[in-house]
């Protein structure tokens, strides 16, 4: 980061004060003086004491850093030093926090601040400065340097430990995070939440729930951030029973009016398929945000309730909320699932022309899916060809799945050429194309795809089904006999098969080449 140089030599009077802000606007009442911060000025006037220049400079620097203007904060810091005003630990914390929150182009400046702090010895002697350094390096992706600072701190508090654990988790170093967590002298709710939240963000949702149970056994009371992390894990896994338990826990605690928890409950119930529970939470909310409306709209859409999703999309606007990109994703998804092609295209046009929103990749994906489900494959492919963004594997995979439903082999082959470049190691697209060949009787094409997978070392990942029993997830793959209750499972399967045959069901069998024959 380049720190702007002073263009003129300031006078001693100018150096003793922080940089001046813009001129105040004209006063509506000439007898009333203008103060940018009325409360602070009243306090200073009543005390009749001179303000410490360090406080004024630090306040000005912190304001710039909080607003993401790191270069401006750096320039003020440079002028502060030229003025002969010594910064204190709060000044350094403000600068380092700004570098951590707005990491783009601020790493070099943060490292230079570290060098200054190092000369003063504050990185070892002051716990706030040391912790700010740990957080800055961790958020900038240099968790190795964060650990060096952490180990060198003369004093550590719970915030220091939690910041280092969170730094490990956000950078994917799970084992180091757990190891450091085990070394903590005392763990609080933030410590447990940092670990669980990190597992959820990295996709290890089952591990997050395991640690939540450990937290309960340790006797540490979860806070609202912990509840949100656990609800997110429940939504990802579909663990409805645990989600219900969390809902009851929330009702017993003083979290009833917490909007973020209510939004998380709506999302959890929607993704677990209990859309009516989600609606009940939404309707019981005393206050709602745009996130609340988006959560229920998307929940209705993905659960196939297109009419309700579009109804709430309209009601949201009547309540004074302006739809954003997520709102339109929900509306477009609803139209796609209901086959409302014209309505979906109208929403897509209004998104740009009326609301001034630029469509993102997920919106183009919704239009592709909208055309694909309606059987209009060429229209969907034209969207992919003409969209201003590069299509990803999700968009292309959506149209490939539509090709299977319509039996369009030629378009599927064109899509596969693109998908193999985007995701050469992905097994699902190869398997889908092989199934498309098999569905139209082209066994030579299916065999060719399988041989190509073998040559590239791509193995089909086994699919699994899961069921929740007593807040625990049980997974099964085809032919699985490793479960402790396998005898009961297969006995029930035989009983179901017998009932199906008695009802006249005849399973469809297709002879096809095996992978071993290729």
TrEMBL record:
Annotated GO biological process: RNA modification
Domain of life: Eukaryota
Bias kind Pro residues: ranges: 19-28
SUPFAM superfamilies on file: TPR-like
Transmembrane spans: 224-246
NCBIfam families: PPR
Protein known as: Pentacotripeptide-repeat region of PRORP domain-containing protein
Species the sequence originates in: Carpinus fangiana
């Amino acid at each position: 980061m380049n720190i702007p140089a002073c263009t003129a030599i300031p006078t001693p009077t100018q150096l003793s004060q922080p940089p001046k802000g813009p001129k105040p606007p004209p006063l509506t009442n000439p007898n009333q003086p203008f103060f940018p911060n009325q409360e602070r000025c009243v306090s200073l006037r009543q005390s009749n004491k001179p303000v410490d220049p360090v406080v004024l400079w630090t306040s000005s620097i912190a304001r710039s850093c909080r607003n993401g203007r790191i270069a401006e904060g750096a320039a003020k810091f440079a002028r502060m030093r030229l003025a002969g005003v010594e910064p204190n630990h709060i000044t350094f914390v403000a600068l380092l926090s700004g570098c951590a929150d707005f990491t783009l182009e601020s790493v070099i400046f943060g490292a230079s601040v570290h060098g200054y702090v190092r000369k003063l010895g504050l990185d070892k002697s002051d716990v706030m400065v040391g912790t700010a350094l740990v957080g800055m390096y961790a958020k900038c992706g240099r968790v190795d340097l964060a650990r060096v600072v952490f180990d060198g701190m003369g004093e550590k508090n719970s915030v220091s430990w939690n910041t280092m654990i969170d730094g490990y988790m956000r950078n994917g170093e799970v084992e180091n995070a757990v190891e450091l967590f085990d070394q903590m002298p005392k763990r609080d709710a933030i410590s447990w939440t940092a670990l669980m939240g990190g597992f959820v963000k990295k996709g290890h949702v089952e591990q997050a729930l395991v640690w939540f149970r450990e937290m309960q056994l340790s006797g540490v009371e979860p806070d609202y951030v912990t509840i949100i992390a656990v609800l997110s894990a429940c939504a990802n896994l579909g663990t409805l029973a645990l989600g219900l338990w969390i809902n009851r826990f929330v009702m017993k605690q003083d979290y009833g009016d917490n909007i973020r928890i209510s939004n998380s409950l709506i999302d959890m119930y929607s993704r677990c398929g209990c859309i009516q529970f989600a609606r009940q939470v939404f309707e019981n909310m005393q206050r709602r945000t745009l996130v609340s409306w988006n959560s229920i709209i998307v929940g209705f859409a993905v659960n196939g309730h297109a009419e309700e999703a579009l109804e709430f999309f309209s009601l949201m606007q009547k309540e004074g909320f302006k739809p954003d990109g997520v709102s339109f994703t929900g509306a477009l998804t609803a139209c796609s699932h209901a086959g409302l092609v014209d309505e979906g295209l109208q929403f897509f046009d209004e998104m740009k022309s009326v609301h001034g929103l630029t469509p993102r990749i997920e919106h183009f994906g919704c239009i592709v899916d909208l055309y694909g489900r309606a059987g209009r494959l060429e229209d969907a492919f034209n969207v992919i060809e003409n969209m201003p963004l590069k299509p990803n594997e999700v968009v292309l995979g959506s149209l490939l799945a539509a090709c299977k439903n319509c039996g369009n082999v030629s378009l599927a082959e064109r899509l596969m050429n693109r998908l193999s470049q985007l995701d050469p190691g992905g097994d699902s697209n190869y398997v889908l194309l092989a199934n498309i060949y098999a569905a139209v009787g082209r066994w030579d094409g299916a065999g060719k795809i399988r041989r190509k997978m073998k040559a590239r070392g791509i193995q089909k990942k086994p699919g699994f089904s899961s069921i929740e029993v007593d807040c625990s997830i049980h997974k099964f793959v085809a032919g699985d006999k490793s479960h402790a209750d396998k005898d009961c499972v297969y006995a029930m399967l035989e009983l179901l098969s017998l009932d199906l045959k008695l009802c006249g069901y005849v399973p469809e069998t297709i002879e096809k080449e095996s992978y071993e024959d290729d």
